[in-house]
Write the structure tokens for this entry.
Amino acid sequence: MADFGEPGTSGDISTEDRTTPLSAVGVGVAVLAVVLLGINLRLVFGSASSMLVEIRGTYQLGSGSAALLTTGPVLCLGVFALAATRAIRRWTVPAVLTGCLVLVLIGTVLRGLPWWLALVGGTLIAGVGIAVANVLGPVLIRLLFPHRIGLMTGLFTALISASAGIASGATPLLDARFLHNWRVTLALWAVPAVFAVAAMALVAWRRRRFVPIATSPASAGPRWQSDVLRSPVAWAITGFMGLQSLLAYSMIAWLPTIYRDRGLTAENAGLLLTALSISSIATALTVPILAARLRSQSVLAVAAAGLSVAGLTGVVAGGVGGAVGWAILLGLGQGAQLSLALTLMNLRARTAATATSLSAMAQSVGYLVAATGPLLSGALHSATGSWTATLAALLVLMIPLSVCGWIAGRDSTPGDRAESARTA
């Protein structure tokens, strides 16, 4: 995952607590807070996807309406990501993250109420909290672990990648064997959020005497630098981020349902998403290390897209044979693509301020693109009555994903005089 520079460097987005040692918080509490934060950032996505058949049956929903449960949070990631820069002008990063986790907790509990509006509303409330926390997670790591940024961000990314699959696999098991009520099962995922709120609140309390971040004008909110907005490489990174996220959230939303329609039980179909998410950890941890050692990451980006092409092709082939293998290939591709996208935001920027502008642009625009994935995938299935057209469309999108990755991987930075010529 990209980091935004060491505290105190020129252009750094914050000057908060440059000299405060980790002992002010406590190593154990700090690690626990980061771990619980990472786990809670995708549980909402995965827990609902494996129960969509039950949800659709209860409320008599079509595929398009049901996709709101997975599209809504992704849309929030794009719409509310920029709110993070405003919030940290008034409160410390741990305090803002505590508030975000409270929203996740409230939204998750609301999903257990017996109304469709409560289910959708709770999902969106949790999505707002996730959107802001998604941006501030790396900032928290820099503040607490300035000398272990790579290790902790790798752990953080891996937990984000795995949590959706864990929820997808465990939710049908909990429902079938213990709770026998999908609403109660979805609400049960508020328990991890309770522990996360407690851990983050303790970090915030121990840092209560320190002032909020003083954001530099170059990196404040949506005031993106002109060289980033005009940069072909920056737009290529944004396209790569958006298209890989579109594929990822389409699979989170519909992969279990695709295989349930082919005859798998809810438990086994949910475990496919678990296999996808767990396998993504391997590439999420290793690809950033490899990318940082390469001058150009173009070949790496195309190879990452190739993994998804192989996985999608296997799913298109139909049947349930080899389903686990195809899910693992999809997971390896998604872990590689997400971690590479986040790494490129840092590698392509000369300064931390440029990296911040690039990150804001890529995540806000990229996640808005990604939000269309589950909705359009569900609508295409409803229109054709088959998943083949949906999977074929996702395969076609791997072409622009590869093109964006090739351009984004070139050794150039926004603002370089030679950038346009290199891109052409």
In short: Residues 352-384 form the longest helix (33 residues). Residues 22-417 form a domain with the Growth Hormone; Chain: A; fold (CATH 1.20.1250.20). The chain has 19 helices and no strands. The CA atoms of residues 123 and 162 lie 19 Å apart.
